[in-house]
Design a protein that fits this description.
- By secondary structure, the chain is of the alpha/beta class.
- The chain folds into two domains: about 170 residues, 3-Layer(aba) Sandwich (Rossmann fold); about 130 residues, Response regulator (Rossmann fold).
- It has 13 helices and 14 strands.
- Strand 10, helix 10 and strand 11 form a beta-alpha-beta unit.
- Helix 5 runs parallel beside helix 6 and helix 9 packs across helix 10.
- It starts with 12 loop residues before the first strand and ends in a 7-residue tail after the last helix.
Length: about 350
């Protein structure tokens, strides 16, 4: 492994998503007095911002068969392109765990400086990630967790449970504790869907509401349209709907339009551009969405660079890079959509 020196952190445009969400990596520039107070904590934001020896980072993610995944992949490349001391080697996206394992093994054999990995299956990729770590290559785990704490140097996650809490809290605020609530989930077998539903149910229960009707789609437009048609046919009166995913939300809205239903309001999830445009226009039942950051792989590239160059996070007093980072899940409405629209992704 090479010894790396000083580097630079920039704001990154991740396709349609700006990496302002990772202020935690660069932070705001501190005044002279503040810098003096934390000088012993590690490298400063300014030091991290200086270019250093080139870092070779291997990146592997699933096939971009979904708008959010497409933004994940393009965000990783955009982040790398923003640094003149990062070389990103991108494996072909795949939903085949064995093919992804082979890609990581290639990175190990090539002796890259770090690996950013969004596993198609966290458990299946755990062993090869441990092998990379054992070879002295730090692994940054993105979005889907490995099954061993020894498989990653750092983990960056969206907050699936927090998404459910945010959605349930918003609906409670709008309904005041009374109303018929429906839920359109993604794929029920996935832990992320289970976490979102659990957070949603917990938040609703705090204001005396519950999920009165629930269907699960498959994170596709066709799936969203099909299950929503069934949901609407079975329930003549609905007050609020939470749809877990803005990509499948295109189909959800199509079904709602076809049924001529508008007695309820809906909120989405993830933060697509078309959802935010609809929220800003305020001319449909879609009134809000909950962010699930598509900047996670871009964040991973920025962290991989700092780790490989033995840097710390700017503006943190404690030296080193945190082991685990869970990103926020804010609610976007017409009142704050302009603050978030540059973080959106194309469906």
């Amino acid at each position: 492994m090479r010894t790396h020196h000083k580097a630079r952190t920039r704001l990154v445009l991740t396709g349609a998503a700006m990496l302002t969400a990772i202020g935690l990596l660069a932070g705001c520039t501190a005044g002279a007095e503040e810098e003096a107070a934390v000088d012993g904590g590690g490298t400063s934001t300014e030091e991290n911002a200086e270019s250093g020896e080139t870092v070779v980072i291997g990146f592997s993610g699933p096939a971009a068969d979904h708008g959010w995944l497409g933004a994940i992949n393009s965000g990783a490349q955009a982040a790398a392109d923003s640094f003149d001391d990062v070389e990103l080697r991108v494996a072909e996206g795949t939903n085949d765990a064995n093919a992804q394992i082979a890609a990581v093994e290639t990175f190990i054999n090539d002796g890259v400086d770090a690996i950013v990995l969004l596993p198609t299956d966290g458990a299946a990729l755990t062993e090869v990630a441990i092998a990379a770590m054992a070879a002295g290559i730090p692994v940054i785990n993105v979005d889907r967790e490995f099954s061993s704490p020894f498989a990653a140097r750092a983990t960056i996650l969206g907050d699936n449970y927090g998404m459910g809490v945010s959605a349930g809290t918003y609906i409670c605020e709008q309904l005041g504790g009374e109303g018929f609530v429906a839920e359109i989930a993604g794929i029920d077998s996935l832990p992320l869907t289970q976490d979102r539903s659990r957070g949603f149910e917990d938040a609703l229960s705090d204001c005396g509401l519950e999920v009165d009707a629930r269907v699960a789609a498959d994170f596709t437009v066709a799936g969203g349209e099909s299950v929503t048609s069934q949901l609407l046919a079975a329930n003549p009166q609905i007050d609020a709907i939470w749809n877990h995913d803005d990509d499948q939300g295109i189909g959800v809205l199509a079904a709602i339009t076809a049924a001529g239903r508008e007695e309820f309001f809906m909120m989405g999830g993830a933060g697509s551009r078309n959802a935010m445009d609809a929220i800003a226009a305020d001319d449909s039942v879609l009134k809000a969405t909950v962010i699930y950051p598509s900047t996670q792989a871009a964040d991973g590239v920025a962290l991989a660079r700092l780790i490989a160059q033995a840097k710390t996070m700017g503006d943190l007093i404690t030296p080193g890079i945190p082991k685990r980072i869970v990103l926020d899940a804010p609610v976007v409405t017409k009142d704050n959509v302009e603050e978030f629209i540059d973080l959106s992704f194309a469906s």
